[in-house]
Design a protein that fits this description.
Blueprint: H1 2-10, H2 16-56, E1 63-72, E2 75-80, E3 86-90, E4 99-102, E5 107-110, E6 116-118, E7 122-131, E8 136-141, H3 142-149, H4 174-183
Parallel strand pairs: 3-8
Antiparallel strand pairs: 1-2, 1-7, 2-3, 4-5, 5-6, 7-8
């Protein structure tokens, strides 16, 4: 549209009637053009995400280097260096500690180990699952997954320590209690 207006103005074809007509039509044309461009961008983004997820489908179990690009209370977003694919490390896969989100520093900090994962950190991740329908790549931190496989467990989430096993005498049944009452 702009090119047409410039060309018409340059060639002296832009009359007052044409200017008024364009002044009425241009806001609607601009709104429509912007809307169509946004839809095209969304479609392109969705297609790229689908292609990335499809590419990663046969890489479940493989390990990759990546950088933490986002930190939230529910996990870490990691972009793989080699493939520029982004996935998420959910806190439920971080079983070596209980991690708390620190908003001011964009970090997850382990309660007991004090291990910190923050924006920009380089990590090694393993592809755990690829969900084509949701267009998601689920990742796990390789070092934590390895320790969990070897049998190390994370800390207990509760504040109380486990009860010591003590043998109590079984509580008497109703008939036995009735017999005691009748003897009295």
């Amino acid at each position: 549209m702009v090119h047409r207006a410039l060309r018409a103005s340059r060639h002296g074809l832009l009359t007052d009637d044409t200017r008024e007509e364009w002044a009425e039509d241009l806001p609607e044309v601009a709104r429509h053009t912007s809307e169509m461009e946004r839809r095209a961008d969304d479609a392109e983004r969705e297609l790229l995400q689908w292609k990335k997820v499809k590419f990663m489908a046969d890489k479940v179990g493989d390990e990759f280097e990546g950088y933490i690009t986002g930190v939230a209370a529910f996990g870490l977003f990691v972009e793989l260096v080699e493939h520029f694919v982004e996935g998420m490390v959910h806190v439920s896969t971080m079983a070596d500690d209980y991690y708390k989100f620190v908003d001011g520093t964009h970090a997850l900090v382990g309660e007991n180990t004090h291990k910190v994962y923050r924006l920009g950190d380089k990590v090694t991740v393993q592809v755990i699952r690829v969900n084509m329908e949701m267009r998601q790549v689920d990742l796990g931190l390789a070092d934590i997954l390895e320790r969990v496989r070897e049998g190390e467990r994370g800390p207990r989430r509760g504040k109380r320590s486990p009860k010591a096993e003590t043998r109590r005498t079984p509580r008497p049944g109703r008939r036995e209690r009735q017999g005691r009452k009748n003897r009295r």
